[in-house]
Amino acid sequence: MLRRTGFKSKKVDSIGFNAGLKRSSFKKKSVKRRVGYSNPEYMARVAALGCAICRRLGLGWVTAEVHHQRTGTGGGVRAPDTKTAPLCNNHHTGADGIHQGRKAWERRFEVTELELVAETQSMLGFKEEAQSYV
Ligand SMILES: [Zn+2]
Ligand SMILES: [Zn+2]
User: Fold this and answer.
1) What average pLDDT does the structure give for the chain?
2) Please, what are the domains in the chain?
3) What's the Cα-to-Cα distance from 61 to each of 4, 48, 53, 58, 114, rounded to whole Å?
4) Centre of ligand 2 from the C-alpha of residue 29, in Å
5) Is the per-residue pLDDT at 57 higher than 80?
6) pLDDT class for 33, splitting at 50, 70, 90?
7) Which ligand minimizes its atom distance to the CA of 96?
8) Is this prediction's pTM over 0.85?
């Protein structure tokens, strides 16, 4: 009888630790792997935001591809799926794309890759710290 205190706090942990990310689709899978590394659900949500540069340029929603952060990743190492930003084909790998040279691209559009990644994470309610230790 001691337990019947009326508290319904069962689900507080999972909600609190993953604010903004829906839990439903994760339940089937094991959560042992690093959540942030390969995360198709997050990738889909990033792309759905539309190109971050076109948005800045006032062009509205433009179909985007998902760009993985290059800053701080050496050689062939790929950043986790949570370190990404949405860019249209032109602003991604096209003539005006970040892949043509990141530094010049950042100067030209007056935003850094890291800022775009952080902006994307906050738009999707993703908390880097909360996810790293899952
Ligand atoms: Zn664009
Ligand atoms: Zn890319």
Assistant:
1) 80
2) 39-127 (3.30.40.190)
3) 51, 9, 10, 9, 21
4) 28
5) yes
6) low
7) 1
8) no
